[in-house]
From TrEMBL:
Belongs to the HrcA family. Negative regulator of class I heat shock genes (grpE-dnaK-dnaJ and groELS operons). Prevents heat-shock induction of these operons. The keyword Ribosomal protein does not apply. The lineage of its organism: Bacteria, Bacillati, Bacillota, Bacilli, Bacillales. Residues 104-322 form the Heat-inducible transcription repressor HrcA C-terminal domain. One of its GO terms (molecular function) is DNA binding. This is Heat-inducible transcription repressor HrcA.
Amino acid sequence: MLTERQKRILWAIINDYIVSAEPVGSRTVSKKEGVGFSAATVRNEMADLEEMGFLEQPHTSAGRIPSQKGYRFYVDHLLTPRLWRREDLIILHESYTLQMDRIEEVIQQTTSLLSNLTNYMTIILGPKISENRLKHLQIVPLFDRSAISILVTDTGYVYQKRIMIPEKVPYHEAERLVHLLNYRLNGIPLPHLRKAVAQELKTELAHQFSKYGELSGLINQVLQAEKQERVYTSGATRMLDQPEFQDVEKVKMLLDLIEENQTMVELMEPTTNGVQVRIGNEIHHNAVTNCSIISASYMINGEPVGTIGVLGPTRMDYGRVIGLIDLLSKDFSRRLSTLFELD
């Protein structure tokens, strides 16, 4: 267990390093407000903190930098999340003054806002498709038997894609089919839609539609939604401004990671434990061993359905970001809940 003096010195070193990105020496620490120890005393304590694994000493410098163990202790025992300024809150709430009626718009705007406020990369994991239920189907004719299929979920997602209406099926029959599917499938989880048609509606549809054989292919097209959870990111290029990412290989690994949708989903799985801070090797991915992820789940009807988070260097401003993630995830949950109540 660290002594109070060691805690104060570790706190001062990490706070200085977060701002400067330069190794911190004993003379610098001794001059910090609230430390109150001589440079010699600080130097001895820094040596002990290094021996215990809380600090590291780059071979090119006499100063010390925090280790991942040091950051972990700092976050768990020394840090008080920072209260946000009034002007920051005004920016946050003004971002929702637009009349947004789709969850994608809310997520995209929130992703950009969070990246701008933190100057780090923002990641938001959209609601799991398995938790989305059908709210509305529609087809909009285009030309030459083509149309746009629109599938709307109870959580506000809108899936659109181009489909082809079979040659032998009049458009009014396709419309009547969609009307019946709307009536019979409303509220069913998306992954179960086609199974519900096959097990519960096949006989009824065959009885009502003489060309059911041709319509079955149309049904499959209309009811097929994207299977992957959606990952929204913003500010990846901001990481290039961080000293830790001057190494081209590190940048390439990070950018490759962003393209791996399923890996990003696994990194950002929703939880019910409030704000989570994962530092370096705790993330269990080589591309982000020099990074930290601060995240929190957002709720719809009291259930965690997605995650909002920030990825930055281990040298990130934890107090500032933790306070913002906590505030924004709650505000985000309220905003989404309001949208769904209006649906």
